[in-house]
Amino acid sequence: MNETFVVEILLVEDNPHDLELTQRALRKANVTNHLQVARDGAEALDFLFCEGAHAERKMENAPKVILLDLKLPKVDGLEVLKRIKGDPRTQMIPVVVLTSSKEQNDVIESYRLGVNSYIVKPVNFESFAAAVQEIGMYWLLLNQPPQLEE
Hints:
With 150 residues, this protein is an alpha/beta fold. The chain has one domain: 3-Layer(aba) Sandwich (Rossmann fold). The chain is 38% helix and 14% strand. The chain has 5 helices and 5 strands; from the N terminus they run βαβαβαβαβα. It has helices at residues 16-28, 41-48, 77-85, 104-112, 125-142; strands at residues 9-12, 35-38, 65-68, 95-99, 117-120. A 5-stranded parallel beta sheet has the order 2-1-3-4-5, sandwiched between helices. β1, α1 (16-28) and β2 form a beta-alpha-beta unit. It is globular. 29% of the residues are buried. The model has no long low-confidence stretch (mean pLDDT 86).
């Protein structure tokens, strides 16, 4: 991977249909130029913690926001969230759960683990595209992340 490539959004999604819809919505919002996709929880953790196929990546090049599905193969989304928020190197990265799960246990556990936002995927593409565009605009342009000292 090119070391100068800065990832602004890490999209963690295993469902090919939802992945395509999310990518289309991000393209529509003009925020796909710095997108990294992980198709399961293990791949997401490897990317974030610079392990495995991403061992050459630098921790300092963290994404500005993570869009995280909960129902993932290998390592589920709640475990990924727990690892992100439990590590001082990644705990400040905003995480938006973007899932089809309306289960209250998932919502409660996500917030308990430190999620920044929990969004249930709309079924209608136009509503979904609008939601993704708003996520991108807010987290990439409006949100002011903390400036961490070296």
